[in-house]
Design goal:
Elements (H helix, E strand, L loop, with lengths): L1 H14 L3 E4 L21 E8 L3 E14 L2 E10 L2 E9 L6 E6 L7 E6 L9 E11 L2 E20 L2 E16 L7 E11 L3 E8 L5 E11 L1
C-alpha cells in the first residue's frame, strides 16, 4: 500500500531543462505585487517535458470562464501526448494569490484545490496544505505539501529565452499512511515563475533527490 501511495503522490507532483540562474539578485523588492499566472483568455504556454523515458510537448491554454464555489474561475486546458485535461484558476483581486483546482478520482473530495500564495513576493514565505487521498476499499491516506518561496528577483535563461524578476518556489511533498502519525517525505517540485509570464521551469525530484521530470517553457502567447 505504501508503494501505491508513493506512486499516486508522485503522479500528483508531476501534474504540478537546460537553464542558467543567478541566485543573489533581488530585482523585485520584498512585499511588491507579483503576477505568477496571467489568465487572459486565449493565453497559451508551450512546454518541453523531459522524463527518464521520453521527451514530449505540453500545451496549456486559457479557454474560458466558469464559476466554482461562487468565485469566477478561468478554465485552462492542458494537452500532453494527445490527451487533454482541464484545470481551474482563480486569482484573488486583493492579494493576487492563485487558487488552482484540478480533478483526480484518487482524492476523497474528487478534486485537489491548492492556493499559491504568490500575490506578493517575500523570501521565506511558507505555508502548508493537506489532502485526503482515497486508495479504494475504504482506505483513506493523507498527503501534504509544504510550500516555500526560496528566491525572488532571479535572472534565468530557459530554452534559450531570457527572463528577469523570476520567483523560485519549492514544494515538498509527504505522505502519511493509515494508522501512522509520521509524515514520510515523498519528493519535491521546484517551480520558477516569471512576472507576467507564468511558470517557465518546473523540476520534479523523487524522495531520494533524483530529478525525474523537467518542464521548460518554449513559448508564451499572452
Amino acid at each position: 500500500m505504501k508503494n501505491k501511495l508513493n506512486y499516486l503522490l508522485g503522479l500528483f507532483l508531476l501534474g504540478m531543462l537546460t537553464f542558467s540562474c543567478t541566485k543573489d539578485e533581488r530585482a523585485a523588492p520584498q512585499g511588491t505585487r507579483f503576477n505568477a499566472q496571467p489568465f487572459g483568455l486565449g493565453a497559451k504556454w508551450v512546454y518541453s517535458v523531459e522524463t527518464f523515458t521520453d521527451t514530449s510537448e505540453a500545451i496549456v491554454e486559457i479557454i474560458g470562464d466558469t464559476v466554482l464555489g461562487g468565485k469566477p474561475f478561468k478554465v485552462a486546458e492542458q494537452k500532453l501526448n494527445g490527451s487533454s485535461t482541464l484545470g481551474f484558476f482563480y486569482v484573488d483581486p486583493v492579494s493576487g494569490d492563485i487558487t488552482q483546482r484540478s480533478y483526480n478520482s484518487q482524492f476523497q473530495n474528487g478534486f485537489i484545490e491548492s492556493v499559491a500564495k504568490l500575490g506578493t513576493v517575500s523570501v521565506g514565505k511558507a505555508w502548508s496544505e493537506t489532502y485526503q487521498l482515497n486508495l479504494g476499499a475504504g482506505i483513506i491516506a493523507s498527503s501534504k505539501n509544504d510550500f516555500l518561496i526560496d528566491f525572488v528577483g532571479l535572472t534565468k535563461t530557459v530554452a534559450g529565452n531570457n527572463y528577469s524578476n523570476v520567483l523560485q518556489l519549492t514544494i515538498r511533498a509527504s505522505a502519511m499512511v493509515p494508522g501512522s502519525t509520521v509524515w514520510t517525505p515523498n519528493g519535491r517540485v521546484v517551480n520558477f515563475y516569471s512576472n507576467n509570464v507564468g511558470t517557465i521551469l518546473t523540476e520534479t525530484y523523487n524522495q531520494v533527490g533524483t530529478l525525474v521530470s523537467n518542464r521548460r517553457l518554449k513559448s508564451y502567447t499572452p
